[in-house]
Write a structure and sequence with these properties.
Length: 373
C-alpha cells in the first residue's frame, strides 16, 4: 500500500493501526503527489490525504487517478471535509475514510473493500469492452460474408468461413456472388492483409464496392482498377494490400473468365480430377503498384465441373508441429481423395484443422461453385 501523507504524525498513526491488526500490508510512505506518481507502479492500493504540499483538494486525486493504473485509491479526509470524501468517490476514488474515526480493523476493511471494488470495476469494464468488440466483429463479419444474389439458373454455390485463432482480431477475408440479368454469375473472394477492425472494415468496403460495380454493369476488366483506386484511398496506412480472385461464369455454364490479383489459384474439379487454374495471367495484389493491370484467363468448363475458390488460410495451415505448410499440391490431393462434393467444404475444413493440430492461425473462406444440372 502507498500512503500519501505529509503529516508525519498521521503517517505514524496509520502504520500503528495496521500493525495493531497484523495487517498483511507492506506500507510505503511518501509526502507529495509527485512522489506518489513515481511510486504508483508498485502499489495495489493508495491511501491519499487530500491536503498535500503540491496539490490541494481533488486536484491531487485527479493526478493520482491519471497514473494509478489498476491500483485502488482510498481517500483520507478530516472531520470537516467529509463532504469532500463523497466528491472524491464521484471523481473516481473507490472509497473514503475520515481521520480520527477509524481503528485498525476498519482501516484494513476499507483497504480490502477498495481493492476488491477496483478489481470488480476492472472486470466489468473488460467484460463490457469484450462484448462491444464482439458485437462490432459480428457486424463486420456480416458485411464481409453477405447473402449471395443468385438466380434459379445460376451454378450452385456453397460457402464456409472459419475465423482464425485470434477470434477477437477479425481478419479481412471476404466473398460475394452476384447473378446479373444476362444470366452470368460473378463471384469474388479476397483477403486484406493483416487482422483487426481496420482490415475487416476495408474488406467490407471492397466487397460492397465490388457488388455495386457488378450490378451497375461496369466492364469486368475495369472492376479491379476501380477497386484498387478505392483501396489506395481507403486504407488506413501505406503497405496495406489485398489479394483477390474474381470469376465470371457464362450463362450457359460452359466457360469462365478468371482474374487473379496475387491470390491463390482456384481449383477446377472435372472428370479428369482436380487441378489448379493456371497462373499465366496472374497479376499483383491490389494496392502494390498504382498502375498494375490484370487480364482474364478464359477457362472452358466441361459438363459436371466444379470450382473451389479459397483464401490462403486454407493452404497455410501447418502439418503437425513443424513449419511445413499444407500447400496447393496437398490441397489438390485432399480434393481428389474425397468424391462427395456436397460434403467437400466441411471435409476440407475439418481435415486442415486436424492436420494443423488445432485452430488455424489465419481466417479462411471457401466458395464451391458447381454446375447447375
Amino acid at each position: 500500500m502507498l500512503l500519501v501523507e505529509d503529516d508525519e504524525g498521521d503517517a505514524v498513526l496509520v502504520g500503528a493501526l495496521l500493525d495493531e491488526v497484523n495487517a498483511p500490508v507492506r506500507l510505503t510512505h511518501v509526502r507529495t503527489v509527485s512522489q506518489a506518481v513515481q511510486a504508483l507502479s508498485q502499489a495495489d492500493c493508495v491511501l491519499l490525504d487530500l491536503g498535500l504540499p503540491d496539490a490541494s483538494g481533488l486536484d491531487g486525486l485527479r493526478r493520482v487517478l491519471d497514473h494509478a493504473g489498476q491500483a485502488a485509491v482510498l481517500v483520507l479526509t478530516g472531520h470537516s471535509d467529509e463532504d469532500r470524501g463523497t466528491e472524491a468517490v464521484a471523481v473516481g476514488a473507490q472509497d473514503y475514510l475520515v481521520k480520527g474515526q477509524v481503528d485498525g480493523s476498519l482501516l484494513l476493511r476499507g483497504i480490502r473493500y477498495a481493492v476488491e471494488r477496483r478489481r470488480a470495476e476492472d472486470a466489468h469494464r473488460q467484460l463490457r469492452e469484450e462484448r462491444l468488440l464482439s458485437q462490432e466483429s459480428a457486424r463486420l463479419e456480416r458485411g464481409l460474408l453477405p447473402t449471395p444474389l443468385l438466380a434459379d439458373c445460376s451454378p450452385a454455390l456453397a460457402a464456409r468461413y472459419r475465423p482464425g485463432r485470434q477470434r477477437m482480431q477479425l481478419g479481412g477475408d471476404f466473398y460475394d456472388a452476384v447473378a446479373t440479368a444476362d444470366g452470368s454469375l460473378h463471384v469474388v473472394i479476397g483477403d486484406v492483409c493483416g487482422h483487426g477492425p481496420d482490415e475487416a472494415a476495408l474488406g467490407v468496403c471492397l466487397r460492397i464496392a465490388w457488388r455495386a460495380l457488378i450490378l451497375s454493369g461496369q466492364a469486368e476488366e475495369q472492376v479491379l482498377d476501380t477497386l484498387q483506386q478505392l483501396l489506395i484511398h481507403e486504407r488506413h496506412r501505406e503497405g496495406i494490400f489485398t489479394t483477390l480472385c474474381m470469376a465470371s461464369i457464362a450463362a450457359d455454364q460452359s466457360a469462365a473468365q478468371v482474374y487473379l490479383a496475387g491470390h491463390p489459384s482456384p481449383i477446377l474439379i472435372e472428370d479428369g480430377g482436380p487441378r489448379p487454374v493456371p497462373r499465366e495471367r496472374a497479376g499483383l495484389p491490389l494496392g502494390v503498384l498504382p498502375d498494375a493491370k490484370w487480364t482474364a484467363l478464359t477457362l472452358p468448363l466441361r459438363p459436371g465441373w466444379a470450382m473451389l475458390l479459397y483464401t490462403d488460410g486454407l493452404i497455410e495451415g501447418r502439418i503437425g508441429a513443424g513449419a511445413e505448410r499444407l500447400g496447393t499440391e496437398r490441397l489438390v490431393d485432399l480434393i481428389a481423395a474425397h468424391r462427395a462434393q456436397d460434403s467437400l467444404l466441411d471435409h476440407l475444413v475439418s481435415t486442415v484443422v486436424g492436420l494443423n493440430e488445432g485452430d488455424l492461425e489465419d481466417d479462411l473462406a471457401l466458395l464451391l461453385l458447381t454446375e447447375r444440372r
